[in-house]
Design a protein that fits this description.
By secondary structure, the protein is α/β, with parallel strands linked by helices. Helices cover 35% and strands 15% of the residues. Strands 3-2-1-4-5 form a five-stranded mixed beta sheet, sandwiched between helices. It is globular.
Length: 201
């Protein structure tokens, strides 16, 4: 059973991102403040949930949250500032959308940068430990997936509806065949380098 939050006596938000390892599309983050009486037996790290469960949870979380914010950081910015900085920026911008502002932030993972003098804690695998981070992970993932499904129709050959921009064999084969689009992250290694060994006797 996940705990609701780290500091039970403070207004605390959980924050998480989705899409860090993708070759195309934005990195998306969410931040959420849940009420102190919130309970849910299904909610967990979004990666442990089926797409159906995530999509069922999203409106429920939005309805019962005290406040939530979601932010996409797009490819051009990822290429300029790198994926780690883009992920942190997406989380910070999502926190900025919260009313009230939290008194404490808990972040999934081990990297964050100070935001508005609000104390924060980084928690490895936090989306499997705290409901507020798990809720943020579900919002980030569902909003990002919805965006990828929306742009799928523009470039159906990459099958983003299914792979959501992640580096699947199918996605990489489509890049080999068709090249890249405006949605691809140009700073990423989009195809593994072809290494050949010339063995001499």
């Amino acid at each position: 059973m996940l705990d609701l939050k780290l500091h039970t006596d403070l207004i605390e938000c959980g924050t998480d991102e989705a899409g860090r390892g993708c070759l195309a599309g934005p990195v998306t983050a969410a931040a959420i403040i849940l009420p102190d009486d919130f309970t849910n037996t299904i909610l967990n790290d979004s990666k442990q949930l089926s797409e159906t469960k995530r999509n069922t949870l999203r409106p429920l979380l939005e309805d019962c949250a005290i406040s939530f914010g979601v932010t996409h950081i797009f490819m051009e910015d990822i290429d300029k500032i790198n994926i780690l900085n883009a992920s942190i920026l997406a989380m910070q911008r999502s926190i900025a959308k919260l009313t009230p502002q939290p008194e404490h932030i808990i972040v999934d993972g081990n990297r964050f940068k100070p935001y508005a003098d609000i104390p924060y804690s980084c928690i490895i695998k936090g989306d499997g430990k705290y409901l507020n981070i798990a809720a943020a992970s579900v919002l980030a993932k569902t909003y990002r997936d919805a965006f990828m499904e929306q742009i799928h129709d523009e470039f159906p050959m990459y099958n983003w509806k299914k792979n959501k921009g992640y580096p699947t064999v199918e996605h990489r084969n489509a890049i080999r065949q068709y090249g890249i689009t405006k949605y691809h992250r140009k700073s990423f290694r989009l195809l593994p380098e072809q290494l050949t060994l010339d063995l001499q006797d």
